[in-house]
Amino acid sequence: MSFTVAALYRFVEIPDPAALRDRLQAVAEAGGVKGTLLVAGEGINGTIAGTDDAVEAVLAALAAEPAFGGRDGLELKYSTAAAMPFGRLKVKVKPEIVTIGDAAADPTRRVGTYVAPEDWNALIADPDVVVLDTRNDFEVRMGRFEGAANPEIERFSEFPAYVDRALDPVRQRRVAMYCTGGIRCEKASALLLARGFDEVFHLKGGILAYLEQVPEAESRWRGDCFVFDERVALGHGLAERPGPRERDAGLQKDEP
């Protein structure tokens, strides 16, 4: 038996996060879905796994919420797992769906320019573009795009300090960034725009969309993509890449 895995997020104003948490938890538990969903006033983020029908029930419940008004705008990626990749279900209310700790990073107001996976190679080949990996150091060392800078952070909340320390909107006028599924780049791009950077681009759907859509023969990705479940890593076509579970303490405290 294989399991459907759905990674999802959306930045949208949710008036009552606790009530949404309760409704989603009830639907997920009824279908035996496992994984993590984070709910905040700014939106939802998470990865869940279960049977096709059970995962679909959770997504349908989410789409039926007035705040969402359907699936339009929901960043959603499917993959499969040979075994259940999560030990339990966690549906939590958080201050942020991905923690950066800087109010200037508000994707509900402004984000960078989305770049489709098929256009990403041409953008990062431009010598005037600074390519920036917004993930933590463990993830970057597992795999990255050719020529991408590693901020060497342990968790995403350290990213604003890295920007203030290492980047300059006068010298680095064009910045292209990426992350696992796209959510961290939403906040990172909003932060850079607030800091005065003119041209900020981010990979739509993140590394997962790129690995799913870009043929391996044309790829500029090197290594594996770490994912926050027991599959450890994914490769091209979102195929499982099993390996040792070498997660340091800093990584365990970070969110996808």
UniProtKB/TrEMBL annotation:
State the Pfam families in the record.
Rhodanese (PF00581), UPF0176_N (PF17773)
Molecular function terms, GO-annotated: oxidoreductase activity, acting on paired donors, with incorporation or reduction of molecular oxygen
Q: Which UniProt keywords apply?
A: Oxidoreductase, tRNA processing
This chain's function reads: Catalyzes oxygen-dependent 5-hydroxyuridine (ho5U) modification at position 34 in tRNAs.
Gene name per UniProt? trhO
Q: Which family does it belong to?
A: Belongs to the TrhO family.
Highest taxon of the lineage: Bacteria
Instruction: Cite the Rhodanese domain residue spans from the record.
Output: 125-219
The record's annotation in NCBIfam families points to: PRK00142.1-4
**Originating species:** Methylobrevis albus
Identify the Gene3D superfamilies for this entry. Answer: 3.30.70.100, Rhodanese-like domain
Q: What is this protein called?
A: tRNA uridine(34) hydroxylase
Question: So what EC number does this one have?
Answer: 1.14.-.-
The organism's taxonomy opens as: Bacteria, Pseudomonadati, Pseudomonadota, Alphaproteobacteria, Hyphomicrobiales
The record lists the catalysed reaction(s) as: uridine(34) in tRNA + AH2 + O2 = 5-hydroxyuridine(34) in tRNA + A + H2O
The Gene Ontology biological process annotation of the record reads:
tRNA modification
